[in-house]
Amino acid sequence: MPELLRKIEADYISAYKARREVEVAVLRMLKTALKNMQVDLGREPEDHEVLDAIMRQVKQRKESIEQFRAAGRTELADREQAELEALAAYLPTPLTPEQTSALVDAVIAELGAAGMQDMGRVMGAINASHKGRVDGKALAALVRARLGAGPKA
User: Fold this and answer.
1) Looking at residue 7, what DSSP letter applies?
2) d(CA 30, CA 54)
3) Which end of the chain is less packed: N or C, by CB atoms within 10 Å?
4) Tens of pLDDT along 122-134?
5) C-alpha to C-alpha distance for 83 and 81, rounded to whole angstroms
6) Co-location of 14 and 80 in the same domain
7) Are residues 46 and 73 in the same domain?
8) Pair (83, 102) in one structural domain
9) Could you give the CA distance from residue 119 to residue 148 in angstroms, rounded to a whole number?
10) What are phi and psi of 150, to 5 degrees?
C-alpha cells in the first residue's frame, strides 16, 4: 500500500475515534475519490496519483470558498476553509515566493526559454519536478511576467 494512502487511512480512523467531524467528512470524501480511482485504474493508486486526487480536492475547495464569499455565504466558506486546511496536511510543503521565483529563473535559463511560446515547456518542467509545491495561478503569472508578456488581463 502506498505511503500516502496508508497515512490517509490511519488518519481517518484516528479522526473517527476522536469525533473530529470535519476531518472525518473530508477524509471520507477523499477515500471515496481514491476508491473510484482504484476501480478506474484496476489497481491501487500510487502516491503521485493520490497526490493528484488531493490536489483536485484542494482546488475544488478553493473555488468553492471564492464563490461562497462572493455570494456572502461566510458560514459555508468557513466550512470549506476548514476542509481545505484538513486536506492541506497531505500536500508537500509549498515553496516560498522567493524559492518559486528562483526556480522559475533557473528553469527558464536551463530550457533557454525566450518568449511566450516557451511558457508551456517552462510550466511543464516546474510542475513535473515540484508537483503540489507551487500554486498554479501564481506560477503562471510569474512565468508570464518573466517571459515578457506581463500579467494577463
Assistant:
1) H
2) 7
3) C
4) 999 998 888 888 8
5) 5
6) yes
7) yes
8) no
9) 10
10) 75, 175
What is the pTM (predicted TM-score) of this model?
0.76
Range of the domain at 118: 97-146
Q: CB burial class (10 A; 0-12, 13-18, 19+) of residue 16? A: middle
Residues 23 and 66 in one domain: yes
Give the list of residues 6+ apart from residue 100 with CB closer than 8 angstroms, or none.
134, 138, 139, 142
> In the numeric block, which cell numbers belong to residue 120?
508551456
Same domain, yes or no, for 82 and 123? Answer: no
pLDDT of residue 115: 86
Asked if residue 84 belongs to a domain, the reply is yes
Which residues, at least 6 apart from 108, have a Cβ–Cβ distance to it below 8 Å?
118, 122, 143, 146, 147
Please count the CA atoms within 13 angstroms of the CA of 3 that sit on its side-chain side. Answer: 5
